[in-house]
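Sequence in, structure out.
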Amino acid sequence: MKKGDFLRIEYTGRIAATGELFDTTSEEVAKKENAFNPKQRYGPVLAIIGAGMAVPGVERNLLEMKEGEEREFDVQPSEAFGPRDPSRIRIIALAKFIKEKINPYPGAFVNIDGMDAKIQSVSGGRVRVDFNHPLAGRELHYKLKLLFRIDSVQEKAESMLNHYNLRGEREVKENKLEITTEQPIQEVIQKMLSESIKKWIPEIKDVKFYVKEASEPKKPETSGKPDAERPNPEAEPLTNSAVQS
């Protein structure tokens, strides 16, 4: 494989020292280890080599693999989520959490000023917060399977939009991708999607967004009789027994 390849993969990631599961694409594995999350989508996922969708250690192995190949390997912190950085552990006043309506307690994961963090301790009106990634400094063990490479432009575009959970109609016409959705997409998101698609699918030179026009509801047919002579559907609801075969 090479940089820029679109791959469909399956994987299970564990902490090497303990065997603790931290991520998997397998619903069966998640349920077996009491880690199932009903809000998470399970199944094969997209990995574009070089796009940062996987940690460097996984991308390095994907470069060496062939379609259908499966392997297990360890990844050092330097090729995973990096070493732990003591400077990313901070003391924050409890008042800030109260103002943000956050209940801090040891072990809780919170979002502060747009950054994810873990509460280490709460004492004397001060909260010790760790902004390191939860897996920073950890050696990881992966079981990885490269299912297949995606080659067609249409399928690449489909896979990217599915990755971003963007629903709607998609069609590639020559070097242009047309996306039609039920609801308008914010301009900043349109720009982000357009730039990312054109970067990783160089055959696409332009991305256009459209909003699907709502169809007008059909007007009920009338019998032409005055209102007083029309049956009242609320007073006499039509039931299946009234339908003639």
